[in-house]
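agent> Task received from the user: take the single chain below, predict its 3D structure, and emit structure tokens. No templates, no multimer pairing.
agent> Plan: (1) validate residues, (2) run structure prediction, (3) serialize to tokens, (4) report one or two observations.
agent> Step 1 OK, no nonstandard residues flagged.
tool_call: predict_structure(input=
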Amino acid sequence: MSASREKIKRREKRAEGTEKRQVRAQKSYKEKKRAKIIKTVTGAVALALAILLVVFNSSLFYSGFTSIRMGSWKFKNTDFNYQYFTNYYNTYNQIYSTYGDYSYMLLDTKKPLDEQNYSDTQTWDEYFEEAALNSLQQMAILYDKGKAAGFEMTDEQKEAVKTSIADLKRQASSNKYTDFNSYLKAMYGKGMNEELLTKILNTSYYATYYSQELVRQWKESYTDEQKADYYNNNRAKYDLLTYYSYYVDGSANDEEGIDSETAMANANSTAQAIAEAATEESFAELVYQYCPEDQKETYSDPKACRHEDVAPSSISNSDWLNWLTSSDRSYGNTKVFPSDSGYYVFMYIGSNRNEYKLENYRQIVISVEADANTGEITSAALDAAKAKADEIVAKYNENPSEETFISLTDEYKSEGDTVSGLYQDVNMSQLSGDIKAYIFSPDRKAGEVGYIYTDKKYYVFYMLDEGEQYNLSLAESLMAQDDYTKLIDEASDAYSISTNFIFSFAKK
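)
tool_result: status=success, residues=508
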């Protein structure tokens, strides 16, 4: 089974879980958009309003009139709504996949989007509107440039539109819709139907596939020397950082008669004492020496305050980040940073310049079942899971090949398992702990099968050929991103966005 087919299978399975959330999300959203009730009208006013209501409730304001202009392009509200609601669904599903039932704390489908903040300066409604308009603009630019360049979609790419329509019809059926156009209206707003959606998808897919072709051409044009130069010029943003850190609490303690000023002074003294460390071993020892009794067990492990291969983008404090990424840093440098209620003390260990190969592998995950009564993992459960891992390896060795391991994945993958399968172009910051140590061990070889036990699971791995050197791969992607942004920016003036009165009927 090819990697692309596996991705399609996983996408279809994810769709089954997301489509019902999408329908519920749209239903909640549309409940906030109901028209106001007109209580009393008489005579000519009533007639005028009746005519207006007929027009308003038709599809004219949604699929009949132009609401947005960009250069020579004229878009209707149905075009905009498709982009708007697609962004909405994708964003909600991403949030839900991370936060589950707590998603409402970030994006509540039961509240109007214009009453929820996306940021300090935008509501969610404003964010999705801006994203939708930008998507239409980029689509128009890429479509025109593709036609000018003579780009044609392959038969397989053209078939993707039909596949998407078929997927939506399946979703409509599973959500009890007997009329496909009614489902499309529920999902993408008034005026949407199969004919309009097919036209939208044909244009959108053409622009997308042309952008992919541009990126492919750009990447092929970059030399390894250019990629290395680009990475070196931006390495402060992308080198992975290894450092030690510890927080010294400076809060007042009323029970011991220590006010906040005294507590902060004591905390500073402790932090400065730890900062005297010259090695990572002595740093860990000093942390253990000075930490409170209730932290002794934690910091008895010297690695408890070690942070390894941390992406700079994950460090939100700009003072910490600037210090850690400074070209002046060398092993053993220490620094104390004040905070409102204590002090942070850091020791710099080193930077990983990402000069390693990306890894590709397959895995089968075997969970170890805890005792139903005690919640503890018994030796019998461990033995049973290990026996299954040994069984997989033995079956693989009977006919060692990637196809054999794929069939074993299908055989041993439990229901609801989303982590068994293929992993491609994996970098170090995506893994941690024992799994990272195993996958990136220099002892690994393509075609090798082995397993480890960690986090109450057995992981059986099949190693594939290594990928590209990561710093060059990363630079290549970033360079293509820069070229894409440049292309859109240079063309955007000729595709300036303007809306009219009809646009006020969008999002319905």
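agent> Step 4: summary for the user.
Residues 359-463 form a domain with the Chitinase A; domain 3 fold (CATH 3.10.50).
agent> Done.
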